[in-house]
Structure formats: structure tokens, C-alpha cells
Amino acid sequence: MYRLTSAMCGLILGFALVLGSVPRTEAAETKLQGNWTATKAERDGKPAAEIVGHRLSFTGDRFEIKDKDGKLVYGGTVRVDPKTKPATIDFESTEGALKGMWKGIYTLAGDTLTICDNAPNTEKPRPAAFEAKAGSGYVLVAFRRAKP
């Protein structure tokens, strides 16, 4: 009886340790990995032409955004939760112009990735819809998967 109880406790403890080590959010999901180019952008209800042409890359749990000339604009870690509706994405920028955390939502349809987030107005809550209305403080960007 003692062996069974001891084995069961070990199994339960091992299972708890494994569950405790599983992150609540995931690194950028496999489908997002790679390079993306901004094709359309809007900020606060107005076109944001300066963002069009930016390149976003996901490698594991890291992201980088570079401008049209290849200069780093932002970089850091990214976490996504594809199970929420809409799917969420959190950027922790440690490099570039905007440092800190900004939160957003995303959708992936084929080779088009759409992200709506609260950068650079990080005090705003996470967007609930894919829109960047005037005064919202949100940015809405459509990306196209870059050809290898």
C-alpha cells in the first residue's frame, strides 16, 4: 500500500510540475513565423502611409519590425493566444523607438495577417475589434507574407 501511495504521489507531483511549466500564452504560433510586409495601415481613423512597407518578422518568441530601409524600428518578445476570440498578441518591445508592452488582436487568413493594437498609446486597453477609428488610439495594419 505504501509503494502505491508513494508512486501515486510522485506521479501527481510530476504531473503538477509539468502543468506548472506550461506557459499561459504561447510564443508566436508556427503559422506566424517568418517575414511579413505591411501593405495597408491606419492610425486613429487616418491612413498611416509611413507604416506601409515596414517588415515584421517572427522567429520563435522574438519579433522585429524594420522600416522600408531595413532600419530597426521595434524589437523584443511576442506572445500570442490563438485560442481567444479574437486571437490576442502581446509585444514586449525592448529595442527601438517604443519600449514597453503593447497589446493587440490578430487574424490570419491565408497569406494575410491583420493586427490591431494599442501602440503607441499603451495606456489604452486591448482593441476588441479590427478597427482604428478616430480618437481610438489604435493602429490597424494588414501584412502580406513575404516571399522567401
Textual characterization of the structure:
Strand 5 and strand 6 (72-81) form a beta hairpin. An 8-stranded antiparallel β-barrel has the order 2-4-5-6-7-8-9-10. The protein has 1 helix and 10 strands. The protein is mostly beta strands and 148 residues long. The chain has a single domain, classed as Lipocalin.
Q: Write down the secondary-structure element order.
A: HEEEEEEEEEE
Strand content: over 45%
Which superfamily, in CATH terms, is the homologous superfamily?
A: Domain of unknown function DUF4822
What gap, in angstroms, lies between the N and C termini? 61 Å
What is the count of β-strands? 10
Please name the CATH architecture.
Answer: Beta Barrel
Q: Which strand order spans the largest sheet, edge to edge or round the barrel?
A: 2-4-5-6-7-8-9-10
Compact description:
The protein has 148 residues and is mainly β. It contains one helix and ten strands, in the order H-E-E-E-E-E-E-E-E-E-E. It starts with a helix and ends with a strand.
Based on the model shown, name its key terms:
single chain; 148 residues; mainly beta; Lipocalin; 8-stranded antiparallel β-barrel; 1 helix; globular; disordered N terminus
Architecture blueprint of SSEs:
Blueprint: H1 2-21, E1 26-27, E2 34-43, E3 46-47, E4 55-59, E5 62-66, E6 72-81, E7 87-96, E8 100-109, E9 112-117, E10 139-145
